[in-house]
Amino acid sequence: xxxxxxxxxPIDLLALLLIVAFLVFLVLEKTGKxxxxxxxxxxxxxxxxxxxxxxxxxxxxxxxxEKLFIRVKNQPFDxxxxxxxxxxxxxxxxxxxxxxxxxxxxxxxxxxxxxxFTLQAQGYVRSDGIIVGTKLKVGIPIDLEGKMIDVxxxxxxxxxx
Length: 161
Description:
It is built from one helix and ten strands. By secondary structure, the chain is mainly beta. The strands form two sheets. A six-stranded antiparallel barrel has the order 1-6-3-2-9-10.
């Protein structure tokens, strides 16, 4: 009687290893031992986000105290609290006759504003930066979504509280 040799297909073995690695990742994430989330101290942080050239006729579309959902680098993160919002109308520089300049509301962009959002969130403070979903740095693209607003901006400042 001939004995058949047991052979594992390399593709099946690779699929099994990927499934096991994914399960280990999920367990570490749920227990708080994820390599990114587990390091540093959890503190409140403020994030300034600027949105340039946003067409807007209603400045009541977002109010302080509202919850906004953020996506950092196109990765969904969490709900944050909107601490403050400032709508800044676009302006044009006009020379005066005496060699000076003055600012007037831009005639070419009458309904366009720059918006400065100040957000409060929980983040991990580490020696190499602040982690809010991913490592935050000034200039990173960030998306904000609320009840009546969905904007794309950039991080303009980060402060620990």
